[in-house]
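for ur thesis appendix - SDR family oxidoreductase. copy paste whatever u need, i formatted it the way the template wanted (i think)
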Amino acid sequence: MTKTALVTGAASGLGYELSLLLAKDNYNLILVDIDAPNLKKVKSELNIAFKCKVDIIIKDLSKPNVALEIYDEIKDISIDVLVNNAGFGLFGTFSGTDWERELDMLHLHILTTTHLTKLFLDGMLKKGSGKILNISSLAAFQPGPLMSIYYASKAYMLSFSEAIANELKGTGVTVTVLCPGPTKTDFQSVVSENNIDNKIAFNMACPSKVAIYGYRAMHKGKTVAIPGRFNKFLSVLPRFLTRNSATSIVRKIQDKNRDL
Ligand SMILES: NC(=O)c1ccc[n+]([C@@H]2O[C@H](COP(=O)([O-])OP(=O)(O)OC[C@H]3O[C@@H](n4cnc5c(N)ncnc54)[C@H](OP(=O)(O)O)[C@@H]3O)[C@@H](O)[C@H]2O)c1
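the 3d part is after this line
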């Protein structure tokens, strides 16, 4: 029987790449994004290239109760794979950044991700199978001055995913949290304020490779997936430093890379 995957933030970047991989594996797709023109283009592209059924839902996932709206819209469809990918970055000192944008980020990264997981997990548990892939970040492993809310929200996603992955052992449902380092997508142009060729570009990964890494980890049921050896090293480095030192190092890197 054909399986169905729901992917958020599917109109570009990692969400688009993950949707391609799912389509190649013959999953029917429900793709969600705020970017209507690009999401429609992705649907047309996938309809031409693959046999799977592609439905799109155009929604701002940073608004309250949006997870329930999506669930109600598709509740007759059994979801086998849930990819919580939609996200964005915001750069600047906490005292100077825009609260409305930060509220949207907290809703999107924390509340919508958690609520979608809760709603679709129920059906997965009843079937005794399902896969959840949450896209966090290398930012999850330490505090991030100049991107404080982004780093903190990604730390939430990592901690939440690891905790429920443990609770779900033996149920047939797995939770994987992908923690990419800098990846060449539209995300970087937003957080770099149009300075995409900033100095972190040396460690900038290709989105298709990051997606393949995360996709395979999800299918293996691995809990934490960190693509790239250097990123794996960076993820454990804070354990050997004081919290203060780790935070200061991130601050120095941010100052240097983003030319504040
Ligand atoms: N790229 C990196 O360096 C990097 C590193 C670590 C983790 N990540 C994470 O990877 C995930 C995917 O990002 P990406 O790099 O693929 O960036 P991307 O190319 O900008 O893709 C993100 C997609 O999510 C959509 N989106 C943003 N806010 C939304 C909302 N409120 N409701 C619905 N859709 C929304 C975006 O639409 P718009 O373009 O219209 O906003 C875009 O289509 C994010 O969670 C990000 O935090 C990225």
